[in-house]
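Form 12-C: Joint structure prediction
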Amino acid sequence: MSFMILLSNLMIPLTFAIILICGYAKRVDVYQTFIEGAKGGFGTVVNIAPTILGLIVSVGVIRASGALDLLTGFFAPLLSRLGFPAEALPLTAMRLVSSSASTGLLLDIFKNYGPDSFIGRFVSIMMSSTETVVYTLSVYFMSIGITKMRYTLHGALLANLAGVVASLFITIWLFG
Amino acid sequence: MLNYIWGGMILIGIAVAAFNGTMEEVSSAIIDSSRDAVSLMITMLGIISMWMGLMKIAEKSGLIDYLSRKMMPLLVFLFPDLRRNMKALNYISTNMMANVLGLGWAATPAGLLAMEEMQKVNKKKDTASRSMCTFLIINLSSLQIVTINIIAFRAEYNSVNPAEIIFPGILATIISTVIGVAFAKIMEVFER
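Section 2 - Result
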């Protein structure tokens, strides 16, 4: 099981090594190219900063008011029987709808329970294996004027459900 | 959508606070979370820029193009209707590779172009073709290997090992994608 963690720890250094070796093999000026790309990263972060700020504030409000606890308390008896942490329910539902709103809820979980808690690890893995289904589907289909999307939504929801269930089992298996 | 979610959460929060007597907590939450957001941005600025710098090298060295070409046989299996439509397959491979590497901003434009190409050969213009269904199911099953955002968030909240979730995440992603592909392939047979 610690094998999985070992592989995780290998991922980023390995990616660096492979990409650098490819870069040198193709005679790319790797440092200059890195700087150029990193500059783009500043733009990306600055662009999403107001969105994240807005959602962190609204999640902060709903958390501090006690509304989030009311909601999770309501579903807790049912969910705990399934082994699903009730505190992750609002995030799991929001994940399908909005990427930035779910980011706000994810950060709320990290802040309140810590990223290394069971629920913190579960939501980290769950967020890695799911997507913003509703938003993405409407963008893609609207762009070409498709109104009948047939079985796309079913398939996407099924895949995401599989992602959530798999994340839960993997978290229990590795860290439970 | 976000228009209602954002304001809705704040209004519900304030309403619940009025009943719960937690108005003081809500007030300080507004101030504190605004401050938290900036400290988060600083962490993200470092980690995201590092990743994008690295990916730029992968792009310039031709590694990303190489990997996209290697994907072609798989794409022909997934999209039998697009066998001879190299333009569509190229956009699809660019989109998928960008998603795998966590380059979301590069994935969307290629994905939209792929949809346009598929629409050109679509017989019923208001109905999704089976290639479109398969493409979006795979796209939405999550493909990302290194979820650099999640790692940045974990680092910001002082995780002992922010990267420990990479491989468990890959495993969960593989499972969700396999289920998505299986569903799409089954539906291809049953829904004609």
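Section 3 - Comments
The longest helix of chain A spans residues 30-65. Chain A has a mean pLDDT of 93.
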